[in-house]
Amino acid sequence: MSSRRDKNKAAKLSCEAFRVAFILTFFCGIILYVIAPYLIIMLYGERFTPTIVVLKIIIPSIIFYAPSSLFNSYFNGIGKARIAVFIQMIPLIFHMIIGYILIKKFGLIGASIGLGLGTLIHSIVLSLLFLKLSGLNFKYLIPRIDDFNKIIFFIKRRLHL
């Protein structure tokens, strides 16, 4: 009984971490998307202008991957560490197949589309497997007002406001 309660607590804590990480990566992703042209030119010069599109294509998948990758800690904590290794094979196989096709047809843009799609699929599979193993439903992954408040509280505390 205690073990089941601990797993439930760990699952809910993982959901909270997912929601907070999603909020943070979402806003950081939007900022990066907007400043990408200026940032890339400033850091690398005009020669790297084509990579702006690449970065913009990949950003949405990163927004989902960063928080869903936190579920690996949950899998490790419940003794299912092998799941994370197995799930890594899904995007790997996808990248090899779709990457070959898209790179041949679209070059660098195709590579970034393939990477973005593979990463997004990986995020979805991780999240769905987490929900299945934890017994929780999707509503636990939807950000709440309380999550925003935690972020604001944390920032205020760090800035001594």
Task: Provide a brief overview of the structure.
With 161 residues, the chain is mainly alpha-helical. The protein is built from six helices and no strands.
Describe the protein.
The structure is a single chain. The chain is an all-alpha fold and 161 residues long. The chain has one domain (2-144). Helices cover 84% and strands 0% of the residues. It contains six helices and no strands. It has helices at residues 2-44, 51-68, 71-77, 81-106, 108-134, 145-159. Helix 1 runs antiparallel to helix 2. The chain is flat and about 55 Å long. It starts with a helix and ends with a helix. The model has no long low-confidence stretch (mean pLDDT 92).
Identify the notable features of this structure and list them briefly.
mainly alpha; 84% helix
Mean pLDDT: 92
Q: How far do the termini sit from each other?
A: 43 Å
Task: Count every beta strand, where a strand is a DSSP E run of 2 or more residues.
Answer: 0
Number of discrete domains: 1
**Class from secondary-structure proportions:** mainly alpha
What is the global morphology? flat
Helix content: over 70%
- Main beta sheet strand tally, sense and closure: none
Rounded radius of gyration (Å): 18 Å
Low-confidence stretches: none
Count, helices = 6
Strand content bin: under 5%
Helix-strand topology string: HHHHHH
